[in-house]
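#onboarding

Welcome to the new folks! Below is a worked example of what a typical request in this channel looks like: someone posts a single protein sequence, and someone else replies with the predicted structure as tokens. Don't worry about understanding the tokens yet, we'll cover that in week two.

Example request:
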Amino acid sequence: MKQLRILGFIAIVALAFTACTDTSYKKTASGLKYKIIEGNSKDAIVDGQILKMEMIQKISGHKDTVVQNTYGRVPIFYKKQPLPQGQPVYGPEEVLNDLKKGDSLIAIVYIDSAIKKGLVQEAMLPQYMKKGDKITYTFKVVDVMANDSLANIEYQKAMEKDAPVKRKSRKL
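Example response:
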């Protein structure tokens, strides 16, 4: 019985160490760390299609903060198009074009790297963000629309759903 407990403890510790050393993140040419969790769709998106996505943007480091969360609110709409040539890119847009319906993306932007690449100036950082922090973006592709018209219809539906409820005034 004692040996079984020891073996169980060793198995749990080994599993914990394996989980902590997750090396499944990839890096883009600019150094962006990302991980794509594939959904069940095999259909690649083409230029001009629009991704409807849920997103959470968190900052961690000196102060942990959720900056944006679209779950239960108006989602993000992103049109697939080639990235601009000759401009520095260091952000989730580097890999958004690789997503398919049902896929999820985790992308990590390091503030130090963004400063070093000249994409942001340290003096212009918001108060909740400091050198040494990182921004973690989590995206979930909910749907893919063929054109802008369909995306606009979806956007209007989401705006109506997210609009504040008007309450009837009651007479006293």
